[in-house]
Design a protein that fits this description.
Blueprint lengths: L6 H17 L4 H8 L3 H17 L8 H6 L8 H16 L2 H24 L6
Length: about 120
């Protein structure tokens, strides 16, 4: 269990989380359709994303809202499953303090994405 948020601990969290996503009955089909066999390209982007969010490294340069808008429609309820798996993983990888920081950020990200994808007055594409 990690007691600090570091590049190495972020990598462990991301790898374990996406292992769970790929095994999840609800999320796996969405991610399989979007990523397919390109996990070797996707995971480093997620390391950069969480490094930028949690360590303020600024390494992530993509637009997460547009990335999600480019996907085929998926139910906003899937964000709840994503958050559940993420929280479960964070609780197992980190101590309580670090886990709570990750979960807080993840909840804000999910809320923002849901708003931008489903409530913001624009098309989904």
């Amino acid at each position: 269990m990690f007691t600090q948020i570091t590049e190495d601990s972020i990598k462990v969290l991301v790898d374990e989380f996406y292992t769970r996503v790929r095994a999840d009955q609800q999320l796996a089909p969405i991610f399989e359709q979007a990523i397919g066999e390109h996990w070797n390209q996707h995971l480093p982007k997620m390391y950069d994303f969480w490094s930028s969010i949690m360590l303020a490294t600024g390494r992530y340069k993509d637009n997460p809202v547009q990335k999600h808008r480019d996907l085929p429609y998926f139910s906003p309820a899937l964000f709840d499953q994503w958050l559940y798996l993420f929280a479960q993983t964070a609780d197992e990888v980190f101590n309580k303090d670090c886990s709570e920081k990750f979960k807080y950020k993840a909840e804000n990200i999910a809320r923002s994405l849901k708003y931008m994808l489903y409530e913001y007055p624009t098309t989904n594409k």
